[in-house]
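Sample 3 of the quickstart, ligand 4'-deoxy-4'-aminopyridoxal-5'-phosphate:
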Amino acid sequence: MNERFLLMIPGPTIFEPSVLRELSITTLSHTSKEFIQIFDETLKNLRKIVFVDENYKTIILAGSGTLAMETSTTNFIKSGEKVLVVSNGYFGDRMIELLSKYPVKVDVLKAEELGSRVETEKILEKLDEGGYSLITVTHVDTSTGVKQELKSLGKEVRKHHDETLLVVDGVCSVAGEELYMKDWGIDILFTGSQKALGVPPGLAILWLSPKAMEKLKETKSAYAPYYMDLNRWIKVMEAYEELKPSYFATPAVNLIMALNKSLKLILEEGMERRFGRHKILSKAFRAGVKSIGLNVMAKNEDYAASTVTAIHLPQNIEVQQFLAEMQRRNVIVAGGPYPNINYFRVGHMGPVNANDILATMGAIERSLHKLGIPIELGKGLSETQNILANEGK
Ligand code: PMP
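Result:
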């Protein structure tokens, strides 16, 4: 494989060279003054990108998004409690599986079909049955490219369900999709480093609201396994923010330095502009693939995520064949976690730009053409180009 290629999978994504360079510089001591300052700055900048104030706690752990899923939930449950999981796909289902290992009653609301989502009214009706200590929602399910509505859900939970914590899986949305944690009433939010945050895989990041902190006092992290015990981690994060050395388990020093760099780039771009860029690029890309006769899995534009698109392949083409043709053209896209569904996924998040979208669109057209699908070469490109140009890209 060529050393230079375009990684367009839904995480890990393309990374800025300046972020990657942080991984190759001499590792600092995790208790050094220099690193403590970097850690402090990183924790503070993480608050800015999800629009919360210093009353919210931010935690960075070495691990992947799944560690964040487990840490974000198991710290907040007590034996016998009821939790509600909303699932629009594979990662919602993962939350069901995960919570089923713990001594809670797991109720589930599932989208009727892949590409669809559970509507907010339906979730609120279920919550009205009362007694849920947690509700978990996946903001963007990476398996389907479907985005969940969060704004009114969060506001309603805050107004009418004081006993319930709203937990949001933001692994495929934070720093790519509009997300205002405080305004929208989200209590626990988590993500991984490798997607729209633009940092190689290996960090699990959590944000906790004051209400979540209150609940933590009550549960005392009783069901969180040792490494995931947030009561321990919060002390470490607080120490870093007071510029004091602290230790529970060794932080991923260079990855945190890379995150620090990436957050600076993100804040330099500005969150509104960043959300806008993701929106325009994804809209142009979806229009392009639709114009050559492919079906996007998300049922409508309102459901469609700005960070990832799932696309059905013509029935007579095998996913692996298609992925190989794409790779031959130096563009890496992904299959999906549903072996019975003939589809592929394209990630367009983080530092992605209009050129990347056009290169991907062009490679899709040429790959399909090579595989014998009668398409008009350039049609998808032209559609994508028009939208990009009209939107000022
Ligand atoms: N949630 C979502 C929405 C995801 O997309 C992913 C990863 N694709 C995860 C959770 C799990 O993250 P990881 O693979 O980093 O453990």
